[in-house]
Amino acid sequence: MALIWTAALLGLEFLIGWSAAPAGPGGLCIWADEGGTVWTTGGWAAVGVWLCGPVLRIGLMGIAAAMGIHRGSAATMLSVAAMLLTCAGATTWRARAVQHTRGVLLPA
Q1: Whole-model pTM over 0.70
Q2: Is 10 within 8 Å of 75 (Cβ atoms)?
Q3: Are 30 and 99 in contact (CB under 8 A)?
Q4: Which of 87 and 2 is assigned the larger pLDDT?
Q5: Which of 4, 32, 45, 62 is spaced 20 to 30 Å from 12 by Cα?
């Protein structure tokens, strides 16, 4: 039974990392300068996403500890990797659209 709960908690942590990432680039303002270099700046939404992710992960660690399930750092690293991979992909996707419209700001 512990294996099922461990897999469920790992799945939840992966889901947190995967679902929180698209909100990060959504809070970014992306633009390109005259040379074609893409720039980004974050707002309060991006800060909120980066602060809520660790809070949710700590909450899952507390739930696991209350259930007597020892979780290693691999679950956290998997979740962070999912978040960073998804965030980088979404930011790159938005940046490619901006490269063709130099100097135009995209709303967050």
Answers
A1: no
A2: yes
A3: no
A4: 87
A5: 45
Tokens found for residue 40:
């980004």
Structure tokens at 67: 């259930």
pLDDT tens for each residue of 8-35:
887 887 777 777 666 655 667 777 777 7
The percentage of residues in the chain with a pLDDT greater than 90, rounded to a whole number, is 0
Higher pLDDT, 24 or 3: 3
Alpha-carbon distance of 29 to 86, in angstroms, equals 17
Concatenated DSSP letters of 29-84: EEEE-TT--EEEEE-HHHHHHHHHHHHHHHHHHHHHHHTT----HHHHHHHHHHHH
- Across 11-30, b (16+ Cβ under 10 Å) vs e yields ebbbebbeebbebbbbbbeb
